[in-house]
Design goal:
It is built from 3 helices and 3 strands, in the order βαβαβα. By secondary structure, it is α/β, with parallel strands linked by helices. It has 2 domains: about 55 residues, no CATH class; about 35 residues, no CATH class. α2 links the parallel β2 and β3. The longest helix has 10 residues. The radius of gyration is 15 Å and the shape is elongated. The termini are far apart. The C terminus is likely disordered.
């Protein structure tokens, strides 16, 4: 039987991101995934996972940037990853 994870970047868009963990658990999901969680402290994400009995099964590496605003800008201009580009490891900025 297939097992599905709720993609919190796409599901529950009417809710702020951190409230989506509770919504996923309420709807019966046991696992979650999301795109770019770098705007939130790892401890906060862990607390949400634990509070709602969820397992994190995937998150994506950032497309560029180091905070929510710069990550969004990178995504909008088409940057889809930085670690594979020489000189664009962690902390790289979009368009650089």
């Amino acid at each position: 039987m297939p097992r599905f994870a709720a993609n919190l970047s796409l599901l529950y868009p009417e809710l702020p991101f951190l409230e989506r963990f509770e919504a996923a658990a309420r709807d019966g999901f046991k696992a979650v995934e999301y795109l770019f969680p770098y705007a939130w402290a790892p401890e906060e994400l862990t607390a949400r996972l634990n509070a709602h009995g969820l397992q994190q099964v995937l998150f994506n590496a950032p497309p560029g940037g180091t905070d929510e605003s710069s990550i969004q800008r990178a995504w909008e201009v088409g940057t889809r990853g930085v670690a594979c580009i020489p000189g664009r490891g962690s902390g790289g900025e979009a368009g650089g």
